[in-house]
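Annex B, item 7. Sequence and structure tokens for protein A, then protein B.
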Amino acid sequence: MDIIPLILFNEKVNRLDNCRLTKRMAHPRYKIQHNKIMNLDWIAVDGVSPDDVDAFVLNLRLLIQDSDEFSIRCLSKIYEKDEVPKELSEAFAEQRQKWKTHLISMTLIKKPRRNEKYSNDELFNILFYGGLAHQDKKYIKEFLVLTKQGAFSAFVFGFFLSSLNTILNVVRNIQEINKKLIEISKR
């Protein structure tokens, strides 16, 4: 079994763990900075800068996009193999399901001019692909609307942090599962 993708995934999780935003999320008592809200900054909490968010997102991107052979989806192909112990396959599938369950749940944020709320998936995609990791035409307009509204945008950022915490926990748990599979593969 090729364990290189597992090793690369784990290395990227270590990089993610070393990001300033990760360290800040470990102590989530955020204080809103009113001067940032007045400047229409959507990242308006103490101890978090746009550079901190960028570093986190750019490291996370490697783990959730399929450009590299070690994304979560790519690892799922490894965990589907018969040679992988059932308990590790199930543990991996459980972590993927945690992220999927989070994504389908609804936020409290209403869509502009519509009487419906964003799902975590919609909000994550707009923020992640509309201006943080990429500037996808499909999302950029809504990204700009959601991130340039002062206090409302700070509220949006709070929901985004919730998603980042969820995926951080998922990738950390997958890292532990990977360690077990790497150890088994070395025998």
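Protein B:
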Amino acid sequence: MKFFDYKAAPSPRRARILMAEKGIDIEIEQIDLGARAQFDPAFKAINPRCTVPALQLDDGTVLCDNASIARYFEEIYPDPPMLGRTPVEKALVAEWLARVEGEGLMGVAEALRNRSEFFKDSSVTGPNRYAQVPELIERGRARATACLHDLDTRLGEAAYLAGDAFSAADIAAFVFVDFTAWIKLPMPEGLDNLARWREAVAARPSIEA
């Protein structure tokens, strides 16, 4: 197997942390998004979506997003489970992954990609060109802020997002919280549950992956 990565980007970071939690050690190739290497013909032939993370399996199959990569690794490396242990945990992991991705990570991406000159005409990831929509900047910031509050509320109910076990949902949330720095989003005051959780997660060795 080969994992296609870009060390500075949030999306492949999620997959690296998950691999570290499971003790998975495979070949890694860096794709320099800063140099727009994701659009090079050689990589585009591997992943026509021109995104990382991507995981090329031994049979040539290429998995091109965190959901499929996490599911594959969960099947072949089941311990420790990162997508939930019980039916309820599995449902909660799926729910919080959807919320963090759709509200938090997407909110930051909206604010970042519709403002930065680097993303002019590429405000959405992938091979297609989309013009920036400046009106989405403040909406993205508001969505990200709302997600921080939602995380704090949930983490006042449980140690982790899906209950008492660390999961892929926590990985996504941790990466999201760090990603907010890219748009200089201030951390709202009073989110003590989120702060406690973040400190605990930051101490995990996998976070350095």
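Comment on protein B: The helical segments are 10-22, 41-46, 66-76, 87-113, 136-155, 168-179, 192-202.
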